[in-house]
Amino acid sequence: MEEFKASYPADEDFVDLTAVARVNGYLAVKGSLATLQTEINDLLPP
Predict the structure, then answer these.
(1) Would you state the torsion angle of the CA atoms of residues 10, 30, 36, 39, taken in this order, to the nearest 10 degrees?
(2) Count of Cβ atoms closer than 10 Å to residue 4 Cβ
(3) Rounded Cα–Cα distance for residues 46 and 44 (Å)
(4) What is the 3 state secondary structure string of the chain?
(5) How far apart are CA 34 and CA 2, in angstroms?
(6) Where are the domains of the chain?
(7) CA–CA distance, 14 with 9 (Å, rounded to integer)
(8) CA 37, CA 18: separation in Å to the nearest integer?
(9) N or C terminus of the chain: which is more exposed, having fewer CB within 10 Å?
(10) Dihedral (C-alpha) 20, 7, 10, 39: value to the nearest 10 degrees?
(11) Which long-range contacts (C-beta less than 8 Å, at least 24 apart) are formed by 23-26?
């Protein structure tokens, strides 16, 4: 989250990010932030 906010400090820019939508969707399906944190490197492009 901090990485997103550092790159997009304005709330309007932040909420429009595709990456933010994907993280929200992931959390809605998979469940927890802890799960996301353990799997994030597998989800990112090489």
Answers:
(1) -140
(2) 14
(3) 6
(4) CHHHHHHCCCHHHHHCCHHHHHHHHHHHHHCCHHHHHHHHHHHCCC
(5) 15
(6) 2-37
(7) 7
(8) 18
(9) C
(10) 20
(11) none
pLDDT tens readout for residues 1-46 = 677 778 778 877 777 777 777 778 877 887 788 887 887 777 666 6
| Cα torsion angle, 25, 28, 30, 35, sign | positive
CA-CA distance, 35 to 23, in Å (whole number)? 11
Asked if 1 contacts 11 with a C-beta cutoff of 8 angstroms, the reply is no
